[in-house]
Amino acid sequence: MLEVKEIITCVNSLNASGIVFGGNAAQVHQWPLNPDGEPLILIATVDCAALRREIALDSIPAGGVLSIFSTYSKEDYFLDNITYSGDLSELEALQAGYTSVVFDMGTSTTGSPVKSIPSDSKELRTREISEDEFPVFSMCSQNTPKGLLIPESLKNNYEFIMQIYSSDFAEPFQDVFYLTDAVGYLFLNRDGSGDGLFFVQTG
């Protein structure tokens, strides 16, 4: 059995994990745009110090805030722009800015220029899963989830931190990754710099 930290809605502020899904502002100097010039949507923010107390990984910075962004549209197809399924060109598109992970020491706050996902503070709950289980819920773990495709170039420099399940967002944003059963993955550079990568995979 593997022990993971399931990400659930916070019912007691004393148990807050430092993870917040959604929100209408982020600690960034400038709101990120994708290569098409469209503002990204804020997926989640992470208080690094709080998360590191829960998940002891050197790739998580000792302080500061991570803001995770992704391309999103209610009208247009966008899944291909945020998905990595094993092709190098997909990874290059992601790194060009269809998703974005911004690390900041919390020096400035910028409001979202687009309709935002309602803010939802999260806590972490210990949960055991089998080594063969495909986890279909949001979680943090020191183990890479089963079924996740990872390029060798990513493995060498980046470490898995978190997965975010699309259906764990409140309506009407359960399609935030286009499909309600899509899963987003956060990786951070092993050097602890806060350099990160976020992408989506589907079953």
In DSSP terms (H or I, runs of 4 or more residues), the helix count works out at 4
Structural class: alpha+beta
Assign the CATH class: Mainly Beta
**Secondary-structure element series:** EEEEHEHHEEEEHEEE
Distance, first to last CA: 22 Å
The CATH H-level homologous superfamily: YwqG-like
Total domains: 1
Q: Largest sheet at a glance?
A: 10 strands, antiparallel
Strand order of the largest sheet: 6-5-4-2-8-1-9-10-11-12
* Rg estimate, integer Å: 16 Å
CATH topology group: Hypothetical protein YwqG fold
Overall outline = globular
Number of strand segments: 12
CATH architecture: Roll
Residue-averaged pLDDT: 91
Low-confidence stretches: none
Q: What is the percentage of strand-forming residues? A: 25-35%
Helical fraction: 10-25%
Keywords:
203 residues; alpha+beta; Hypothetical protein YwqG fold; ten-stranded antiparallel sheet; two-stranded antiparallel sheet; 4 helices; 12 strands; 14% helix; 34% strand
Chain-wise SSE layout:
Layout: E1 2-9, E2 16-21, E3 25-26, E4 41-47, H1 48-54, E5 65-70, H2 79-82, H3 88-98, E6 99-104, E7 110-111, E8 120-129, E9 139-140, H4 152-157, E10 158-165, E11 183-189, E12 196-201
Antiparallel strand pairs: 1-8, 1-9, 2-4, 2-8, 3-7, 4-5, 5-6, 9-10, 10-11, 11-12
Summarize this, please?
It is built from four helices and twelve strands; from the N terminus they run E-E-E-E-H-E-H-H-E-E-E-E-H-E-E-E. The chain is α+β, with helices and mostly antiparallel strands.
Task: Describe this protein's structure.
The protein is of the alpha+beta class. It has a single domain (2-201), classed as Hypothetical protein YwqG fold. The chain is 14% helix and 34% strand. It has a ten-stranded antiparallel sheet with strand order 6-5-4-2-8-1-9-10-11-12. A two-stranded antiparallel sheet has the order 3-7. The longest helix has 11 residues, at 88-98. It is globular. The two termini are 22 Å apart.
